[in-house]
TrEMBL record, chain A:
This is Sulfate transport system permease protein CysT. It comes from Anatilimnocola aggregata. It is found in: Cell membrane. Belongs to the binding-protein-dependent transport system permease family. CysTW subfamily. One of its GO terms (cellular component) is plasma membrane.
Automatic annotation (TrEMBL), chain B:
SUPFAM superfamilies: Periplasmic binding protein-like II. One of its GO terms (molecular function) is molecular carrier activity. This is Sulfate-binding protein. The keyword Cytoplasm does not apply. Keywords: Periplasm, Signal, Transport. GO terms for biological process: sulfate transmembrane transport. It comes from the Bacteria. One of its GO terms (cellular component) is periplasmic space. The keyword Transport applies. Belongs to the prokaryotic sulfate-binding protein family. InterPro entries: Thiosulph/SO4-bd.
Amino acid sequence: MSTYSVPTDERTSAFRWPSFKQFVFKQHSVLPGFGLTLGFTLSYLGLIVLLPLSAMFLRAASLTPARFWEIVTEPRVVASYKLTFGTSLVAALVNSVFGFIVAWCLVRYRFPGRKILDALIDLPFALPTAVSGIALTAIYAKTGWIGQFLYPLGIQSAFSPLGISIALTFIGLPFVVRTLQPAMEELDGETEEAAASLGASRWQTFLRVIVPSLLPPLLTGFAMAFARALGEYGSVVFIAGNQPMKTEITSLLIITKLEQYDYAGATALAVVMLLASFVLLLAINLLQWWTGRGYQRG
Amino acid sequence: MTKSFRSIAILVPLAIIFAGAIFGCSNSTTPTTGVNQAGAKPSKVTLLNVSYDPTREFYVEFNKSFADVWKKQAGQDVTVEQSHGGSGKQARAVIDGLEADVVTLSVGYDLSAIARKAKLMDENWQSKLPHNSAPYTSTIVFLVRKGNPKGIKDWGDLTQAGIEIITANPKTGGGSRWNYLAAWGSVLKRELGDLKKLNDPAAAEEVKAAQAKAREFISQLYKRVTVLDSGARGSTNTFTQRGLGDVLLTWENEAFLAVKDLGPDKYEIVVPSLSILAEPPVAVVTKVAQRKGTLEVAEAYLQHLYSPAGQQLAAKHYYRPAIPDSISDEQRKQFLNVELFTIDDVFGGWDKAQAEHFDDGGVFDLIYQPGN
């Protein structure tokens, strides 16, 4: 072990990007163990995230570009993208609004049972998604507790895009609440007081002071709920009805292809979903960076 | 901390990953149990039976029965491990390296995939065991609500106005393909009278017209399906727990279970005049069994399915025995008489049926194309 040593110059020249040197300096000043933790991080991420993803791309690469395009633009597949992205967007938007209210209530007010409510938020994280799917279907089907009131009004609450949105809202809620809570707790009360003393109405204080500082975490929560919804399978298959062209999500089509041993076709769809979510997350990150900067300047 | 140590800290875990990736690919497995090189039998042997969902309870009992027989016959203690799940998913697991000694799945197509894709057994696996390698069979029946309020008696009644049908998606549920094929075959039989005409060149025109009728019927039928669950058990739930639909198309054994477990006062079974002989096939995964040295015991295990004891257990779990003579009159009475046709008779085997009807772009997909 001791005979193995790399000359310093050679080692640093292998890592060209400038930020690395900065990190190396930081390591000496405060916390030790940068090399060890970075090594661990790289190998862990490589093993857990990058290796499976590259395997997926490799499998999809066995298709010719023309065939790939043909598979991912089939009418039935396109219908499933529209449904998946549409319902995920609806669910993420609903969660952004109501998740905001829930987080606000939990952070700003003290009331009996608050801790229990707070713990309940995590339930969709912990529950096997199939269980939530079955439970939601039981409630929203024609004969269910809620469904029996909705169906007479002409609202088809299960086996429809609405049902899918409900399931996706359920599984996405914790993301919004849990990203907003710490940010709300850190809100500076003095700024609000200052705004009030300078004659701002409550509404003005909320819109001009509170919302701008909560926008970045809200966007993060939205993005995470959205991304989570895109890939959801377990809870949706039960409530979706799974009718081709109408209520068939992309994940189900991926499973359908696997049942035909069409691995390449299945990964082609997966690649499309992955790229789409990646682009979306990137866009939201840019937006977040932009709003965050705007707030700091102002 | 020295700088060299830091580099090692980065490099070592990466090296481990690459080493893992390389060795992971080179399929190096050691035989675990079974007959060793010298030919002497170890006292214990373990088999893995990879099966589909509804056979769980049956195999629990059957494995005990086989263990007793094998102990007497070969003096070995045999433990059979079970793995259950959707048929297609189970077959993919075996293809991807799950070390199954025997597979007992719901459709022949999944076994052919194991033979073709992973080359783990001969492509002519189906001729290795009697009765098309299907020791027990089932058929497709209708489950309706008590009193049969919509008066559903046979296939033709399914497309009457106002009937809602529950069945699973044949593309995701292996067993649900039997439903579809049963419905298709019923029309051919009605139109042609005699299914032998299918292979008679003189009747080509007539057959063509009948196939068109069948296609029309299937299209009508699936348009009445409001919930297309991804598996057979899911659609049983939709019908029984959610109270949706007027009729559930399902395996006979599944229908018996639903009536037994959920109340004979709520549902009844309607047996159509004609249905398909659903043959869930079994096979030894020869390459795996050879490697593990379990070939002999694996073969005996499947043979035991054809023994009177095996046949009686299958009947107990509502599967129709391949050899009806081995069960009692009492047991035989529970299965109603129904005229059955096989997938080979009508569709020319699984591979052909799969390609024509269920693969992407097949007849089932066309039903849902816009404009159809």
